[in-house]
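Why do we care about 3D structure at all? Because function follows from shape, and shape follows, mostly, from sequence. That is the central idea of this module. The next example makes it concrete: a single protein chain, its amino acid sequence, and then its structure expressed as tokens.
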Amino acid sequence: MAILSRLRSSVFRAVPTLCAAAVLSLTGIAASAQGAYPSKPIKLVIPFGAGGITDVVGRLIGQQLGEELKQSVIIDNRAGAGGSIAAQAVSQAAPDGYTLLLATVGTQVVNKMIYSKLAYDPAAFAPVSLVSNSPYVMAVSDIPGVNDLQGLVTYARSHPGQLNFGSAGNGSSPHLGIELFKLSTKTFIVHIPFKSGAEAVNAALGGQVQIVIDAIPVIQPQVKAGRLKALAIADSRRNAAVPELRTSVEQGVPGFQIGSWNAIVAPQGTPAATVEVLSQALTRVLSRPKVVASLAELGIEPLPTGVAAYNAHVRAETEKWTRVTQAAGTKLD
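And the structure:
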């Protein structure tokens, strides 16, 4: 009888251990079945249409990121409302790392300043990393005697309200770039919005506007053809794609710095481990010589990677564009 009692006691003591082992075994089987991230294709949502500088960056980075992660990265262009349509869609996606947004200054910083009602919260994303920046070039079509930024400032001050600048639309980066220039130089230049950057450039070629700013691949072909005159690159450093073009800092307008920057963000709640996998993969991608060379050909610079660099950049951009949008009174609804 004593032997039977001791046997029962031993069995009962072993039950919890056996149950725990069974649970761990089942968890391991489930994890193995699910596979390590990523185990299926990833969708990268681009907030503008095909052909623009953001789309070019997204496709290049998407292809390279797919190679790094051994999974396809599918590009999904969702244009509209300054990137808000794409940002809203990604914010509502499952937080599993399989839907990402190629974020911009618009989606992450400016939209919350110029839209009174925004269908997503720019802060409600899990940041993965900054990606790249494409400094803007300021160019003019036909302004007598204007060959550099100081010449433009002098002319604009002596002809207030007589110069027009074209942009890709109200609230677009080129629009805010000229507003930044006006604020930095205390000049009055009239804004003419168009539906795209290409339309704004065509308007400059046709004489409807005298000033445009946009990314190097958009402006430089017209400069080389002699149809536009490049005045400056709106940056603190010269760019290897246009090494002869002096910076805004060199020309005495240090406050005038703007480019089309991109970052990758995921829906809020995406596991930290998944974010880390993406961030490390992106760091390796942006270190590849062929990627650096491909971006440099277009005048695009890789940015520091990681979440900390992203957060610091967004804070600085928020401070800058708050001043500009308030001074310009830019509102879209």
